[in-house]
Amino acid sequence: MNALGPSLAPYIRSSRTLKKYVTPIAHWYANLMGYRKMGLKYDDLQVEESPQVQRALSRLTPRETYDRSYRFKVASNCDLHHKPLPKEQWSKPEDDKRYLRPHILNVLKEEEERLTWDTMTVHRK
User: Are the beta carbons of 96 and 42 closer than 8 angstroms?
Assistant: First the structure.
């Protein structure tokens, strides 16, 4: 299992029927989770203790890092006051893009490549 966990998304996206039935449930569940009410994005929920995620976080642009820390500050303030943000300040589903996932996938690819090259043996002719 990798840092992102198992996913059925590619299989569901490949089937039009499954996608038709699962997409509304997925949107409902994302709204039910409540992270958008705090102004967070989905990738803000990644477990940061993983070394792969730590390396991916170090690759974010300064703007993305600032935006991430600001979202955490706003969410902490909401949690402190036990109130979600006003509805107009919630994260919108179209703005909830996976900004950290490409970096994590690159880190995982690099680790796999490093492992391949590190375990290679040289044979004399």
Answer: yes
Rg (CA), the chain: 19
The one-digit pLDDT tens for each residue of the chain (125 residues) are 456 678 888 888 898 999 999 989 988 998 899 999 999 999 999 989 999 999 999 999 999 999 999 999 999 999 999 999 999 999 998 999 999 999 999 999 999 999 988 887 778 88
Alpha carbon distance 51, 99 (integer Å): 18
First to last CA, the chain: 38
Rounded CA gap, 70 and 82, in Å?
18
Q: Which two tokens stand for residue 30?
A: 């994302």
Q: What distance in Å separates the CA atoms of residue 54 and residue 56, rounded to the nearest whole number?
A: 5
Q: For residue 43, what are the CA distances in angstroms to 15, 31, 36?
A: 25, 15, 11
What does the block give as tokens for 28?
């409902």
